Structures are given as C-alpha cells and as structure tokens.
Amino acid sequence: MDKIKKYRTESNELHRADGPTIIGYREDNSVWMEGYLIDGRKHRDDGPAVVCWHDNGVVEQESYYVNGNRHREDGPAVKEFIHSEEHVDSYRNKLEFAIG
Q1: Strands ordered across the beta sheet of 31-35
Q2: Is the dihedral of CA 94, 83, 79, 56 positive or negative?
Q3: What's the pLDDT at 57?
Q4: How far apart are the first and last CA of the chain?
Q5: Which stretch of 11-25, 34-48, 55-69, 75-89 has the lowest confidence by average pLDDT?
Q6: Would the pLDDT of 84 be above 90?
Q7: Which value, in Å, is the radius of gyration of the alpha carbons in the chain?
Q8: Are 66 and 48 contacting, i.e. CB atoms less than 8 angstroms apart?
Q9: b vs e for 76-92, b when ≥16 Cβ sit within 10 Å of the residue's Cβ?
Q10: Which residues are within 8 A (CB) of 38 and not within 5 positions of it... i.e. 6 or more apart?
Q11: What is the pTM of this model?
Q12: Considering Cα of 67, then 4, then 61, then 19, what sign does the dihedral take?
C-alpha cells in the first residue's frame, strides 16, 4: 500500500515553505507524487506545484499553481505524459486521496 507523508501547521492546515507538503511513496519507497501547498492551497513559485511519476520514474504529470489557481506564465499550467486511460484514473484517485 502507498504511504503518504503530509506536513501540517499546528492548526492542521497543509503547509510547508521549504519543500513538498505532500509526498506519496510506493511500497518500494520510490516517490510517485509531490505536492507543494502554502496555507492549504497548491502553490509554487519556482516549478510545478504537483508532480507525479510513473512507476519507471518518468514524469506522468506536472501542474502549475499560484495561490490555489492553475497558472503558468511561460507555458501550459498542466502538462500530462499519460499513456493510457488507466493511468489517468489511477492518478486522479491517488491525488484526491492524498490532498483530500
């Protein structure tokens, strides 16, 4: 079963200023997802706020957010590298579980 590491404030809000707030690990301890949140909202100034990887380590998706809104100045806010519909469903279910 996957493991999820979450960083929270004393008031239980998802927040971390110096690294990913949510890190999803596979059974083999490889990382499948990192999410950056500030004050409970997806946010990152210097890269994607959410990154997911395939089992083989290749990037599956990058999502750019500023203050909880999808946003990117120099390209698409969401880049998907998905090879089948099965991966899409799996990604969405895992991400909803991790952030929810």
Answers
A1: 3-6, 22-25, 31-35, 50-53, 59-63, 78-80
A2: positive
A3: 87
A4: 17
A5: 75-89
A6: no
A7: 13
A8: no
A9: ebeeeeeeeeebeeebe
A10: 15, 16, 17, 21, 67
A11: 0.80
A12: positive
pLDDT tens across 49-83, in order? 999 998 888 888 999 999 999 999 999 999 988 66
Look up tokens 């404030």; give the residue: 9
Mean pLDDT of all residues in the chain?
87
Residue 52, both tokens: 């997911």
Report pLDDT for 45.
Answer: 95
Tokens of 95: 């991400």
* 3-class secondary structure, 4: strand
Amino acid occupying residue 32: W
Please report the sign of the dihedral spanned by the C-alpha atoms of residue 92, residue 93, residue 94, residue 97. Answer: positive
Beta pairing partners, 53: 59
